[in-house]
Amino acid sequence: MADQNMSNGDHAFQTFVEEAIKDYEQTQRDLKEIDILIKQSAAEVERLVQRNAHASNQEQQLKSNFETLPRDYIREVYVGLNDVQQRLYTMRGQLEKLQSDQRNLERLAEFQRRLIDFSGGAAFSPTAGRSLSKESDLSSIIRVIQTEEAAKQSLVREMHDGPASSLSNFILQAEICQRFFDVNPDRAKAELNALKSAAGSTFNDIKDFIFDLRPMMLDDLGVVPTLRRYAESFQEKNGITVPITITGVERRLESHIEVTIFRGVQELLSNALSHAQATQIQVLLDLDQEQVTAVVEDDGGGFNVEETMGKKSRTIGLSALRERIEMLGGEMTIQSGLGQGTRVEFTIPVEMETAV
Known about the structure:
By secondary structure, the chain is α+β, with helices and mostly antiparallel strands. It has 9 helices and 5 strands, in the order ααααααβαββααββ.
């Protein structure tokens, strides 16, 4: 019996070492890939630096001939300058993030190497052992990084196409106002009114961005009022009615659970609009004593669940959401079919808190 226990222990240890070796090899492959991305990003940054210098020279020439140049050309120069500056800022941020990820992966690789050396892993073949059905911790880390980066890239695109573009027009309109104050006061007044209107619209857009990024009322009032407010905002911006039904005992939950519920509903509403082109969306939130259930149902185009969940480009948000929910001990189910709409339900276990 003792020999059998020893044999089982040796087998478990060997399996552990083999898995550690596979993780180390994967880390080395990831390091090679990220090194290529860093070189590509560095080259793009250098190219954008040169373009920015050229655009800045154009701006200086424009200022010296402002009154004689067509307004369309002036706008084109300022928009071009703003575009290259935004791209340069984004690429520098991406390069810094890649370099940070590289340093983290290098530390991970060093830890894995020392672990393998300490456990005598050099005696095992790097290709030995059975294939693993469970994904490695490193793969989970990479998925989290990819999800975060996808969200950041989406936010950058929205900021670039919205407020950043509007701010470049503010500069142009301010320059025009300044030029016309003495020679054409009426034109200057009209431009100021247009600038005021544009500033008000952009301010509202920025408030929406801040709310989508992290609504302060989620911390102050909880998930239920925040979801109601978000549904109202979603309706106003997209012209789609989003009735939200709350059942059970309305109360505060643990902060990480409230964030997961809000982000989950936010992701599902976004998918229903952008991917499914839904015209009707319904939200249900049931606060039971032992669990919270959220349901988002739409009348959109639907999809083949098994096929689509394997397509990373479309489902990275859904996959990340399912992973977060399962980490909290919950589960998520998706019911959909081509032309049949989509119904997504997720549940998270909770402890009973004080009702509000």
